[in-house]
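thought: fold this chain, then report.
action: predict
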Amino acid sequence: MPYIGNTAANRFVASKAATQFSGDGSTTAFTLDHSVGADEDILVSVDGVIQEPSVAYAVSGTTLTFTAAPSSNSGNNIFVYYLFRTVATVDHPSTSALSATSGTFSTDLTVDTDTLKVDATNDLVGINTATPSDMYYNELVVNSGDEGGITILDTSSGQSALAFADGTSGNARYRGRILYDHSTDSLSIGTAGEQYWTMDSAHIITTPKQPAFLATASTNQNNFGVGSDVTVNFGTEVFDQNADYNGTTTFTAPVTGKYHLSTSVGLLNIDSASSYYIIKILTSNRTYLQIVDPDFGQDNAYFSMSLTVVADMDASDTAAVKVVQGSGATQTDIEGNGAYTNFSGALLC
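observation:
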C-alpha cells in the first residue's frame, strides 16, 4: 500500500556489542571499538574472570589500560562488553536561549566579551572588563566607565554595609565596616568591630572615639613652693572621650598627631615681689609657656593665666600643666574652681 515518507532501509546495522583481544603477557593498553566515558561503562573479562573497574583496568576514550598485562593464553582471552558508549557530544546552538536550574563550568565563563568575565584559573571576576587580573586588587573588578558605579539597593528602613572580615563569628565578620542606615540617613565607618565615625542627615560628623578631654580643678593647692615647677591638679573630669586623661594631672596621646591643648590657671594671693610667674604646658617633645611680671604695685588677690597651643605629640607622649613662682613669699594658691582652673585637649589631625 502507499505510504508517506522516505523509502525504508532494507537492512539495519547495530554497533558492536563486544570486542575481543589476545593478551601477550606484556601489553597493557588496547584500543576499543567505541569511546566510553567511565570505567564502569564496560564489562571486562580476562581468561573468564570478570575484572574490577578502576582497579584492574581504566578507560580513557577508546583506550583500555590494564593495571597488569593480561596473560598470553592462546586465542582471544580478553572480552570487552559495552554497557554504555559515548556516541557524540552536543553543543547548544549559539543563537538559542539556555534555561537550566543549575550549572557547573570547569573553565572560564565569558558573557558578551566583557560584560561578565569569570577567570576560573585565577579565581577572579570582572564586570565590564575581560582582564580583572590587570588590577592590583583583582578578585572582583568593576569597570565603571564614565559615571558608572555599584548600587546596593535596600528599603527606606534598612541598613546596607560593606564589611571587611577576618573570621566567621562575632565581630570578626565585620572588623572593618562602612554602613549606611536608611532609617536615619546616616553613614558610619568602623574599625576593630566598632563604629567610630558617623555623618548624620544634616552632614554633621561625630567621632565618639576621637581623643578629647576637659578636666577642672576642684581643690585649692595652697601656698605652693617657690622656685620650682608645681604640677597643677585637675581632679574633676568633665569628659574624656577615649580615656586618655589619667584623672588627676596627665594626658597621654594615644596616637601620633597634632593636638590642641589649652589651660587656664587661677592664682590667688599673688606676691608682687616675685620676679615672675610662669605657667607651662609640658609635653614629652617640648615645653610651651607664658610668663608674667607681677609688679602691679600691690599683691593681687586674683590673677588668671592662660595658654593655648597646637602641639605635635607622638603616641604615648604625655602633657601636663606646671606653675612656677620665681621668688618671693610662699603665699600663692592655685584656685580650685573649675571656672578659672582647667585643662583641655583634642586631637586635630
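thought: worth noting. The chain is about 0% helix and 40% strand.
final: C-alpha cells above.
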